[in-house]
Design brief:
Elements: H1 2-23, H2 31-54, H3 57-60, H4 63-86, H5 91-102, H6 106-117, H7 123-149, H8 155-167, H9 170-183, H10 190-200, H11 203-216, H12 226-250, H13 255-265, H14 272-280, H15 284-308
Helix pairs in contact: 1-6, 1-11, 1-15, 2-9, 2-10, 2-11, 2-14, 4-5, 4-7, 4-12, 4-13, 5-7, 5-12, 5-14, 6-7, 7-8, 12-13, 12-15, 14-15
Protein name: Auxin efflux carrier
InterPro entries: Mem_transp_PIN-like (IPR004776), Na+/solute_symporter_sf (IPR038770)
Subcellular location: Cell membrane
């Protein structure tokens, strides 16, 4: 319990710093959007490029783990999206809900937790889980959101608009360019490597501060629906790890890889869905609450999982 708490505590500290900065007036009402734009256009693309470009095929080519974690995250995302669509949610909003249910915080919590609990051997599959989450799942979600945001009714014109939007989206372009470095084994020059490390390292902290800023904003109107938040938190912290554990049995994944896959699936919702919701103006309030509540609740669920192993 203590090891989990020590890893999660800095996350709450960063969220709290943003909350205090906004409530005290140190940062103004436009800070959330501006910091979020910095993350979306600069810091996160640098991180995604860095992750993919530095990956090694020997580390990431683990078909069993890819199938188990990827299918688990994908089904959690798809099931939530379809259920929300049946309930009348807009495609863009339902897609953000799907991200809330399937987007694990593998980067900020996953690596230190895996290293502490499972040891160094778990870091390579954790990298695979991170690539699946922040690149593949993110890419699918962005495509669906762009489709949902289009008012154009003619299919050909709509797809052309979507294609143009995606071609200029840094969250898709960065990992694709990084993939070229990986595919052709191009080493990163030392200055570029340092630049990417410095800029990419700001992504998670800035996103968490932005989350705190957003939560601190005083809003008029109806309170957030607790049922919607509870459903998404339950899908993330219960449904996804249970599904991943079942898939690990079906694919007969070795115990060490199975443990890593389930631990990654049991992580709380990362800041990616919040950044997308805020960037596209899609009900970021629910997403902010899901990130906060799932992070708190994961102290119990992860500790319970680790005690049952």
């Amino acid at each position: 319990m203590l090891s989990v708490l020590l890893i999660v505590l800095p996350i709450f500290a960063l969220i709290g710093a943003g909350w205090i900065a906004r409530r005290s007036g140190v940062l103004g009402p436009h800070a959330t959007g501006e910091i979020n734009r910095f993350v979306v256009w600069l810091a996160l693309p640098a991180l995604l490029f860095d992750i993919v470009a530095k990956a090694r095929w020997s580390d990431i080519w683990q078909p069993g783990f890819i199938a188990v974690f990827g299918i688990g995250a994908g089904l959690s995302f798809a099931a939530t999206l379809l259920l929300q669509r049946r309930g009348g949610r807009h495609l863009a909003d339902a897609t953000v809900d799907g991200l809330n249910a399937g987007y694990a915080n593998t980067g900020f919590i996953g690596f230190p937790l895996a290293a502490t609990i499972l040891g160094p051997a778990s870091l390579a599959p954790t990298l695979v889980a991170t690539i699946i989450t922040v690149c593949l799942l993110f890419a699918v979600a962005l495509i669906l959101i762009e489709i949902g945001m289009q008012s154009e009714r003619r299919p050909g014109h709509m797809m052309a608009k979507v294609a143009r939007s995606l071609a200029t989206n840094p969250l898709l372009v960065a990992p694709l360019v990084g993939g070229l470095f990986l595919a052709f084994a191009i080493p990163l020059p030392a200055p570029l490597d340092k630049f990417l490390s410095l800029l990419g390292g700001a992504a998670s902290p800035c996103a968490l501060v932005a989350l705190g800023l957003f939560i601190a904003e005083k809003r008029e109107g109806a309170p957030l629906p607790a049922g919607a938040v509870g459903f998404l938190v339950g899908m993330k912290l219960l449904a996804q790890p249970l599904l991943t554990g079942a898939l690990a049995l079906v694919f007969r994944l070795p115990p060490a890889l199975a443990a890593t896959a389930v631990l990654m699936a049991a992580l709380p919702t990362g800041t990616g869905p919040f950044m997308v919701a805020e960037f596209y103006g899609r009900e970021a309030g629910i997403t902010a609450r899901v990130v906060l509540v799932s992070t708190i609740a994961s102290l119990v669920t992860i500790t319970l999982y680790l005690s049952l192993r």
